[in-house]
Specification:
Two copies of one chain form a homodimer. Chain A is of the alpha/beta class. The first copy, chain A, is 37% helix and 14% strand. In chain A, helix 2 packs across helix 3 and helix 4 crosses helix 10. The first copy, chain A, starts with a helix and ends in a 9-residue tail after the last helix. The model of chain A has no long low-confidence stretch (mean pLDDT 92).
């Protein structure tokens, strides 16, 4: 039997080869028929042979591929639009392939052997140390490596936080529905907060009954205002008096084009603010690398929620990013892309001023997206027009909390970071064609 | 104010610099005092300035680091034992750094730009295609790329499966408590199955009421037997008659030393078996890369559970591994490490035969771990002796399901893959000293 198995395993007996009936093989080998019969049975059960009524016993076609995808199941990914201004990814063509490879080479050369063993759920110390220095320098974050927890992105951070927070979470009434769903899936009730051009109206925060508030202080997403200085002070006061936490989603804090960026709220009170960041906007959403900077008293609970060992974040990419930070590669990439996105935003504003002066761009000169205000009631038709032109762009509606206290606003959320450089001008032209005509103008 | 902000941001105004009282600055600038007062207030709220009673208004030390870790919180990782035979990691020193870097270089050069955008939760098609070919060839898995779902490892796979399965899951009464916890956390009741030297006693599977059974057919973990051919056939019959699923954890199927490995159970019925694999044993648990091969009817549910976009698995490592497979690097690494681990297991068996002939090694010549049978009742004392010798090794007790139908067995589970080559012989010597003496021998 072992000989048979090896003959098949080594390919000497080709798949499909018909074996002699076990009785005749038994006779040839001078063995008891049921011995050979049992051997055949084992080989069938182990997947080496197939027995079928009529066609006898044959060498199995191990791993015969299955029929290709039946398209009525699991639809293929949607095909790419002609013009892509869907928020809010960085330009995938700008990924610094050579610099990232160099960082990976250095990281692989320098990594201690234990980097290839089971990982610490806090993440690699090399990365937490580099992040502590970088976030202080670039974003005014005040922390220490033992307060940094590496994760696959802000989504995982919110799932983990949602599972350890003791009560409801206040959220901006305009924001990522995706983030709201993650908090809800983790068992948190959500309390929507009004949002205006100065960010969330934190004075509306409940005096009791909210465990935390999720904010985008540097650049409200999507509306686009920075949190007003008085509100920055007020939300810290709220956290101190109620014992609540501020969850600061600093998703694009590195991209400010008109001035030095406002520092992270976390710097005002590291014991009451959880700072969240990732590489999804600055480098690529495909790397799945993010970080939480947490108050000392929350570290153990979050690590318990993450689990006893690192199940999520690859050590090599952590070490490559640590090197990318230490070697200045990240700063260089940010300086370069800041110029690209700043130029695109200027071009967007200039194009609208020239061709659609009745449409205003709200929010500050920052990040990878802009919101265009639309006349009341024109959002759905504008989106249909965009679709007809093959232009991918979002409306404001999907970002609005269903119980949001504000009346719904009409607008477009567009990501000027998304398309490759060569396609940007064409995308803006399509946008102008999709926009509603000026009041009184002939459609 | 903007001038002030930029002076601070650029560092021209050093942290700690004391600013003039706003009244005198107002006088100098010929501005209304409350204008300047308000400006100071904003800069404080933005984190640029600090105002303290008495010491006046100063330029903030942005990102002042916090005190280092207070050790009574988040304990540092345990320090490494003198001799490490803890199951079941591959030897971290054997990670193929140069070959992996070369695969990463080729992957980065060949990657389309969309690889740096938001990812498909199924995983990269390049990898799913390579895995389809590799798993057919190496493990007899019958699948197609659209039935492969990439994940961060078997742990994530079990969490996702646990969330979509409609009922209880039968588990081997000896197995990873960690895996049982993941299924339980996903809401699944667990039904322990007896395990003997022929694997799980699948004839004890309930005729109704179990949605699935989690098995380690190629090499029962930890006891060490392969699932008996009759049981392989029987569990497939069970799945077909009850509509249940078999979850096949093929955690070390590539490491068989005495013969061609038994093919994956999945090859017997791709519509009733979910095949689970990862790089954690074959390459490194630090890469966080695994795969599920699932029946067609389960694909959509698992993708829905995973979410609308890839939040977990980095695209670059997926592409690097796809290249590693296509270029034959993975096969070369497996051939090389198979020789290393085979030699270590032989050395373990020979050492015990020479120095502790009363101790038997159970299970087949496969994988990265072995179980040593101990005289009844001697497991705890043996573990204490090992600890005194600085030897990391596990007992059988933590692997036993608390409601396991079998009487507890005494034994050691040791990972001969774990230590670096130079430390292996010393670890075996420590092991021999820790083992209980032969009956009648002078202790």
């Amino acid at each position: 039997m072992r000989a048979l198995r090896e003959a098949i395993g080594s390919g000497r007996l080709a798949p499909g080869t018909r074996l002699p009936p076990y009785r005749s093989l038994a006779k040839d080998l001078d063995l008891a028929p049921n011995t050979v019969g049992a051997a055949y049975g084992e080989l069938v059960a182990e997947g080496w042979l197939t027995a079928r009524q009529g066609s006898g016993t044959r060498v199995a076609r191990r791993g015969t591929p299955l029929p290709p995808q039946r398209t009525h199941r699991t639809a293929p990914p949607p095909r790419r639009p002609a013009h892509d201004l869907a928020p809010t990814s960085p330009d995938a063509a700008e990924f610094p392939r050579a610099a990232w490879l160099a960082a990976t080479r250095r990281a692989l050369a320098a990594a201690p052997n234990d980097a290839f063993g089971v990982g610490d759920p806090r993440g690699r110390l090399e990365l937490r140390t580099q992040l502590t220095e970088y976030l202080a320098r670039a974003r005014g974050v005040r922390t220490a490596p033992h307060r940094v927890v590496i994760c696959t992105g802000v989504a995982q951070a919110l799932s983990l936080l949602g599972s350890v927070l003791p009560g409801p979470v206040a959220v901006e009434s305009y924001g990522l529905d995706f983030h709201r769903s993650l908090l809800a899936a983790a068992g948190r009730d959500l309390v929507p907060l009004p949002v205006d051009d100065h960010g969330a109206e934190v004075l509306a925060l409940p005096a009791t009954g909210a465990a935390a508030v999720l904010l985008t202080p540097a650049h409200q997403f999507p509306i686009g205002g920075p949190l007003h200085p008085e509100r920055r002070a007020a939300v810290i006061d709220w956290a101190r008096t109620t014992g609540g936490l501020v969850l600061e989603d600093d998703y694009d804090g590195e991209y400010r084009y008109d001035r030095e960026p406002v520092g992270a709220l976390q710097g005002l009170d590291p014991d009451r603010v959880v700072y969240l960041g990732s590489l999804s906007k600055s480098l690529s959403p495909a790397l799945r690398l993010g970080w939480m900077v947490v108050p000392d008293h929350l570290v153990d609970a979050l690590l318990a929620a993450k689990g006893p060992r690192e199940l999520w974040c690859g050590a090599l990419e952590q070490l490559a990013f640590a090197d990318f930070l230490a070697s200045g590669g990240y700063d260089r990439h940010l300086r370069r892309t800041r110029q690209i996105y700043r130029r695109r935003r200027d071009q967007l504003v200039a194009t609208l001023a020239a061709h659609a002066p009745h449409i205003t761009v709200t929010g500050i000169a920052a990040g990878l997206h802009a919101v265009l205000e639309l006349p009341p009631g024109t959002e759905p038709e504008t989106l249909r027009a965009a679709a007809r032109l093959g232009l991918a762009v979002n409306g404001l509606a999907p970002y609005r909390h269903p119980d949001g206290p504000l009346p719904a606003r009409d607008g477009l959320v567009l990501g000027y970071g998304t398309p490759p450089e060569h396609a940007f001008t064409g995308a803006l032209q399509a946008l102008c064609l999709a926009l509603p005509p000026a009041p009184g103008a002939k459609g």
